[in-house]
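Our consortium's second objective concerns turning raw sequence data into structural hypotheses that experimental partners can test. To show how far this objective has progressed, the report includes one record in full. It was chosen at random from the queue rather than selected for favorable results. The single chain below, 198 residues long, was entered without modification.
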Amino acid sequence: MIKDSTTRERLLNVAERLFAEKGVDSVSIRSINTAAQLSPGILHYHFGNKDTLLEAIIARRMDEIMIHRETMINSLDNNAAPTTNNVAAILVTPLASFACNNKQSGLWYLKLVASLHSNKSQILNAVSQRYQDRVLNPLQHVLEASGADLSAKQLSLRLSFATSTLLQSACDWSLDEAELNLQATQLITFIAAGLSAK
């Protein structure tokens, strides 16, 4: 769990929780400062505005998840064709590990990202695009190489459906490690079947 080691961290942690619980549009800068027990101008001093704060919240956690995905992509056997199960695992496992390692704060983050994804947030999209060359394009290539007999457009749509399913499912993940592992395993099977269905 991320500690409140600095004023900036405290603001990030409190805002992340409030955004996840109430929705970004329902949370004011004043309410974040109040919940963090800080003076009214502190958030503006550290972040300037709510959009910059939201971007910082997304970015500080996404790197951990994307590096895990990148590692999984790079560890695939170059001599064997990947499977849709590989793709599903690359999608699901890093989020499940993140939730397991960060407990409640991890679930707040995933709930926030799911909400932003559902609302087609430009801020979420901008942060995600930082990983286009390192993670997102290679993942698309892995899916294309998995043998699914589908057009590029169909594969792209299915990957989008899989991402939406993953994020919505993650909102309901258990804090119990054994239960979370079961949920993640079943979700991998479910997504893999959807990616390869004829």
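The partners drew two points from this record. The chain is about 75% helix and 0% strand. Residues 84-118 form the longest helix (35 residues). Both points have been shared with the crystallography group to help prioritize constructs.
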